[in-house]
Specification:
Length: about 140
């Protein structure tokens, strides 16, 4: 018999979001600027169309529009150059704060940033924030349709 318990252990301690990336260009495209409200950000990218290399970084900014976007971390292996290849990259909030102090900036937002080698490539970007400073019910929606 299936459990009727509506557990919220993971859903209230994680913020998980996925984004369809079809930029049509070779510019650096933010996956999604999010307020820094956790200990860590894990970013992923998976190719769905195309075979070109990509560059994956995690950037920090002083606001939700990406002002003063600064690379905090770069993936060492950034070649998910076949369909369903993927990369993961992780950064700690402490690393972001340290980079901000070095730059003289107070970073409040972070995002994965993907740069595609051709304008015809597409993929799925994911961002997972974990160990939220203020866990809350449904921090991650259990369904998006």
């Amino acid at each position: 018999m299936a459990s009727s318990l509506a557990s919220q252990k993971a859903l209230s301690n994680l913020v998980v979001k996925y984004y369809d990336l079809d930029p049509g260009d070779t510019a650096a495209n933010a996956i999604g600027w999010e307020a820094i409200e956790s200990e860590c950000l894990l970013v992923s990218f998976m190719n769905t169309v195309g075979t070109s290399d990509i560059t994956l970084t995690i950037n920090a900014a002083v606001d939700s529009s990406g002002t003063s976007s600064t690379i905090v971390k770069s993936a060492s292996a950034t070649n998910p150059n076949a369909v369903f290849d993927y990369n993961f990259l992780e950064v700690l909030a402490e690393e972001v704060a340290q980079q901000g102090a070095t730059s003289g900036l107070v970073f409040t937002h972070w995002s994965g940033v993907v740069t595609m080698a051709t304008g015809t490539d597409e993929g799925i970007g994911g961002q997972i924030e974990y160990n939220l400073h203020n866990p809350r019910l449904n921090a991650t929606a259990d369904s998006i349709a």
